[in-house]
Predict the structure.
Amino acid sequence: MGSKTHLVVIGAGMAGLPCAIRAADAGAQVTLIESAADVGGKLPRSSGQISAAGTRLQAEKGIVDSADDHFADVMRICRETADPKVVRLAVDHAAATVDWLQDIGVAFPPDHPVISYNHDVYRARRYQWPVEKGKSILAALRPLLETHIKTGRVDLSLNTEMTAIDRDAAGAVAAIRARDAGGAEKILRADAYVLTCGGYTNDPALFRELTPRKPVFAARIPISSGKAMRVAQAARLQVDGGDHYMGILGGVLVEPDDPLSVTFALNTVPQDRPPWEIWVNMSGERFTREDHPSATHREHAVNAQDNLTFFIVFDEGIRQNAPLITATNDTALQQLINANPSYMQGETITELAEKVGVAPDRLANTIDHYNQVVAKGCDAAFGRESLPRAIDTPPYYAIQSVAFAMPSPAGVAVDGDLHVLDTDGRTVPNLFAAGEFIGNTRVMGNAYVSGMGVGPTVTFGRLLGERIASR
C-alpha cells in the first residue's frame, strides 16, 4: 500500500521541478519521482531560451509588447498548426515565468531580450536565455528543491521509474505505480498527479509508431527513453501530434548507420553566415534557396527530401575562404573531412558523387548550372542572393546533413488547463501534464518557434504547481 499526498509529480526536469517547488511553496505535500540519478532532465544541456511579452526585461528597455502580439506571432510562424488553447495559456503566463526566474536568481545578459534568426523572427524583442543557459535555471531551482526536501514538503525519489497508471471506474487516476532501482514497487496516491516525464526520441520503434511518415534522427539522450509514453498509452491516454513533426536543421551523424548519433554541428542560418555552398538532395539536385530568410521555409524544404537528408557541397576554394560552417576551427574541419564518414572528399566531382551516392553526371550538371548562376549573378530558379564564388577548385567536398528531432513531436493530449485527455476524448479530472510529455508540436505546430520549447515547459510546470496547491 502507499501513502497519500496532495500532489505526485512524475519527472524532475524543467517542468517537474518548478511544479513541485511552487506547489510546496504554497504548502502542498509533494511526492516527486525521477527515473534518472539526478534532477534536472535536459536543463544541463538546454539553451534555456524563453520568449515572453510584458517582462521586466522589456520594460527596462522601453519595449512595448503584449501577450496578444506574442500569440499572433506564434500562430503566424507555425501557420496556425499549433493548439491555440495551449499556446494562449503559454504566452499569457510567460512574462510571469521570466520575472520569477529573475526573482530566484537567474541572470540574463544585459542586452536581452533580443531578436534571433535561428528560427523565423518575432516582430518584437521578446526572446532571452540565461547567462549560463539551462544550467542557470537548474542552479537556481536546485537549492529551492533542497530546502523543501529538508522541511519535508517534497519527498524526492531518484532512480525510480513510473510503471503504470491505475484509473478507477470513473476514469480518474486512482494511483501511479513506480519501481525503484532495487526493484521495490511504490504505489503513489494523491489528490492530483502531474506527468512531466520527458520525451521518446531515443525509442526508434515508438517514434515510427507516433510519426509513421518520418524517420528518426536524434542525439542519444538516455532520459528520452519513451518508457513513460508507453505507460501513458497503456493507461488509455490520448497521444497525438506526430503528424506535425518537423526536423530541425544543422544535424550531422557521427556514425552514418546510427540514427541516434546526431550532433548539432552546422550553421545554416543565412543571417548569421550567408551560404557559400550549395545544398543538394539524394538525387544530386538543388532543391531550395539556401539563403532564404525564412527558417521555416528552409526547414520545410529539407523535411520534404527523401530520408530527411541532404548534402552541403563545396570546393577547396570555399573551404579556404568561407566563414566557418562548423563550430570548429579550420584544422578541425579538415580532420572531420579525413575521419568522419559524413564529411566526404573527392579529387573530382565524379569521385565525390560516388561517395555521396548520386549519379556523377547529375551532380556535375548541378554544379555546372550553379557556376553559371554565379557568373551571371542571378539565380532565376531559386532566387538565391549569396553568390560569392563558383565551385570549381578541387578537391570537392560534401557534408551529409539530416533534419533531426530535438524535442519529441507527439505527446499526451491536454485541454486548455493542461488536464490530460484519454483515448475517448474525456478529461481525466485529476491528471495533468506539461513539458516535452505533451509534445513539441502542441505549442509549435509544424515549425520551430523561438523560445516556445523551454518557455512553455517551465511556465506550465510553475503554473500547475501554483494552481493545484491553491485548490
Remarks:
- The chain has a mean pLDDT of 95.
- The first strand starts at residue 4 and ends at 10.
- The radius of gyration is 24 Å.
- DSSP finds 14 helices and 18 strands in the chain.
